[in-house]
Amino acid sequence: MLLGVLAVGWWFCLVDGGAFPPFDREEGGLELAGQVHAGPGGMTITPKGDYILSLHQFFQADDRVVKMTRDGKITPFPNAEMNSDEGYHGVVLDSVLGVQCDAEGIVWMLDNGRRGEQWAKLVAWDTENDQLHRVITIMQDAVLETSFLAGLALDPEAPFIYITDPASGSDAALIVVDLRTGLCRRVLQGHYSVVPQSKVLLLEGKPVEVKRPDGSNVQPLAGANPIVVDRRGHWIYYGPMNGSQLFRITTENIRNPDLFPLELEGRVEGYGFKPYTGCVSIDGKGNIYFCDIGTKSIGYLAEKDRRYYTLVQDERMSWPDGLCFGTDGKLHFFCSQLNRTPVFNGGEGLLRPPYQVFKVQALSSGTVGR
């Protein structure tokens, strides 16, 4: 398997590409909020206003997760020990991508374990009391050899977490974690709502390409990645990174272990257009926001008409990701330049650090960290 050799390969499958559909445009403002030394993979914001950023494993940074305060100070999160091989009370962060903070200041970190070939796990840190809250191992029957756990969403009304696993494409799925028991279930594997569509990303004038061991380049496609739950805890919105449609299903249905796979699949709904993206966020009025990697923009599906609009577009936004709301009610995101890494640039690195964090005014405020 191609990317198994490159240690990044559980994320993609390879097919022919297509073009993105047109969309309506609106202009917006963009404000620089900070910068970090390595390319981020995920971001959340605590109730105190601190940024928590996972550093993408493709950059091979020493720290896996960092905290950036409002004044720009950056430190390992939650501590240096957990970001090292020695660990903290036996817990080592290996390859964190998805991060989310709940209303009580508990930061949940999704560690896919693919850097050091460890068990995938959820690690929760209590930022209010500065202590380890919980560790949940993602059990073997919920993951595959191809798994590359990427995104997570916290249910605001029930003790559940939902995870996206793009895997190798055709075996992409969602994972439901019951926080009462720690039990994990793999659902919707191979369903059309989670597998990638044939849409190749063109960015900065050329396709994103991965170099194979034989020296040839191929264009990667990724399955389920962006995921979010609405404020009422009623709908989960999700879709493949490579795909132009956003899907949804009720939390009640996806949490129900008694539904047969075909019954669950039959309750998935198509909701509207989505761009090529790894992240999604939602405000209190139901407007859904995306980082559009292909057009260096932030767009949204308006709740009133389900039409897609552009909120802000800027040439500085090289691979925007990590979209979430801050304590100021604005949308915050970073630019990881992931397309300029050797992994996604045919073996050639064209990175231009530092990596910037921006914020922009949304139509309505949302939940901090989501």
What's the short story on this structure?
The chain is mainly β and 370 residues long. It has helices at 2-5, 251-254, 261-265; strands at residues 12-14, 24-25, 31-36, 40-45, 51-55, 65-68, 74-76, 96-101, 106-111, 121-126, 131-137, 151-154, 160-165, 173-178, 184-187, 202-203, 206-207, 210-211, 217-218, 220-222, 224-229, 235-240, 245-250, 269-273, 280-282, 288-292, 297-301, 308-313, 320-325, 331-335, 355-360.
Explain what you see.
It is a single chain. By secondary structure, the chain is mainly beta. The chain has a single domain, classed as Neuraminidase (6 Propeller). The chain has three helices and 31 strands. β10 (121-126) and β11 (131-137) form a beta hairpin. The longest helix has 5 residues, at 261-265. It is globular, with a radius of gyration of 19 Å. The protein starts with a helix and ends in a 10-residue tail after the last strand.
